[in-house]
Amino acid sequence: MTFLGIETSCDETGVSIVTHKPGQQFSLNDILSNIVSSQYIHSQLGGVIPELASRAHIQLIAPITKTALAVAKRDFHDLDGIAVTYGPGLVGALLVGLSFAKALAINLHIPFVGINHVEGHIFSLLLSCPELKPPFISLIISGGHTELILVKNYCQYQTLGSTLDDACGEAYDKVARMLNLPYPGGAFIEKLAVNGTHTIRFPIPQMPGYNFSFSGLKTAVLYYLKETKDYRPEDVACSFQETVIDFLWEKIKKVSSDYKINQIGVSGGVAINKRIRSRLSEYGQIYGIKFYFPQPVMCADNGAMIAACGIERYQRFGPSDLSLTVQSRIPSIQ
Ligand code: KG4
Ligand code: ZN
Fold first, then answer.
1. What is the pTM of this model?
2. Phi, psi (rounded to 5 degrees) for 263
């Protein structure tokens, strides 16, 4: 079964061709092509400008689709279906992908399947780690999301917690801005932190249950910078990052012990962070918890995770109705 996957929920235009034998484990070998164009215009402006994102998607979507087919050595007529992100995300950006996908599907007389972007990030894990099988806990940390999800079975979920304010990546981006680093700042904080020490004791956020909150930590960093004359940005970056990791670990430890599940998959743009990967894996070794991370190329938004999710959902639930429209927010995945 060969699907085209389209992702346009934010500032990445991603198109991919994935071929997969239903019933088998997913693997990176299923990905015939995966073309992602990140819109650099936003980095010059310090954040994603929705109108500019939509315009860039319109310019990029057709040529990137052609490239994805060419790299995969496939033709439109080799496609069995089209999967596309319908939410959550920026409405105008989502509309570009969804309208393009519907038009193609109608024209080619093939099914289309609308995909929740958050579920897509779970499939980036399944593609990268064929040995990972449900039940497992999925932690999604990105610029727009921080979600703790129980994956009971394929396409069967229970959302256990999410952020009540800023997303994890958003906190990285805001702290990066305070330190005059470029946008998006996650990778710059990680790089700076390598030469820093954890000398500043920012408080670990206190949140009941499985929910997250990052705005208090962000504000603590802001006040520290305002009130301190001589600080090393490296130490600020390192101390912020270590506090984030300890916070994530606290939640993971709790959920793993409460649900008696020791397989944890971490995905989303922030999951590319090497320090987060190594610290969580070290904690996990002490507590008998096994961590899974996607290949770095699968961490950021991409069409392959959407295509893989589309194939699985199509097998289980059939196509989406053409009346499906975009949704900027979707409370939780099921
Ligand atoms: O998944 P993604 O590409 O887009 C969303 O769905 O939001 O994630 C982008 C986020 C940004 O906030 C970016 O700063 C963060 O991922 N990020 C990182 C790193 N690389 C990207 N955060 C921490 N460390 C990194 N190395
Ligand atoms: Zn994402």
1. 0.96
2. -110, 120
